[in-house]
Amino acid sequence: MQGNHAIKFHFIAKYFKNDEKQLSCGENAYTSGHIKSMQFNVDIQPAYLKDVKASMKKRIYKVEAYIHLTEGIISTSCTCPRGQAICHHMAALLYYAHDNISSTDKAREWGPTQSKKGDAENTLSIDQLYPRVEFTAMVEEMENSKIETFRRRLGNTNVVGFSWYLKPEAENIVYVLVPPIDEILFSEDKDTYLIQKCSLDADTIKQIAAVTVGQHKNEGWLVSRKMRLTASKFGAILGACRRNKYPKSLFKGLLEGYNLNRSMGQR
């Protein structure tokens, strides 16, 4: 409120000169709308100020203040734990009174603004204002076979860069044919176990070749290589055998335990 304030701000600043923190918290409480109601009676000397204050914990505190309109604030009290000294509820009430009471005001009461009774009944929801409209971008329903054909065409032409992401997960058929590296490392008799698993008949070899043909262009090739003893790892294994040293990094590499997320080549 602009004009002749009944409660001067320098009265408030003087009263809280040793408690600036409470003054600052009171200003925040006032601007946040925590003052629920206020009563002011100028006919009582000193003038009597009272309010009902809602705290952040949804508790109600009653604050009272006696003010001499020419000399300043005489006393205050509050029902909060700090109410016998100085609290921010007092500051919030005084801020509210400073902005809302003029020197010409008589005894009166302020309360929260209430909406008209009919406003709630006439208020429309978003769904009522903007009703949903059934919409589809397709002229007719698409069959799964047509969708699959369209997806394959996109994958062959590489028009859409992420079309590979839409492909079904590759089946790890090789898992039952060739053991993963951890089974070899944790087997009791590694030599016997490895020789047995490497003894493949011609039909099994052809089956593995059919699944992994195409190398990096075939998802099955990537899945089959994962966690397996491939030719690219033989050099590290043979070198460790010659040196008769088996560092942790060797097993970590065989088990693919390295994190390559920070490698620029992998990005």
TrEMBL record:
<keyword id="KW-0862">Zinc</keyword>
<keyword id="KW-0479">Metal-binding</keyword>
<feature type="domain" description="SWIM-type">
    <location>
        <begin position="63"/>
        <end position="98"/>
    </location>
</feature>
<dbReference type="InterPro" id="IPR011604">
    <property type="entry name" value="PDDEXK-like_dom_sf"/>
</dbReference>
<protein>
    <recommendedName>
        <fullName>SWIM-type domain-containing protein</fullName>
    </recommendedName>
</protein>
<dbReference type="GO" id="GO:0008270">
    <property type="term" value="F:zinc ion binding"/>
</dbReference>
<keyword id="KW-0863">Zinc-finger</keyword>
<dbReference type="InterPro" id="IPR007527">
    <property type="entry name" value="Znf_SWIM"/>
</dbReference>
<dbReference type="Pfam" id="PF04434">
    <property type="entry name" value="SWIM"/>
</dbReference>
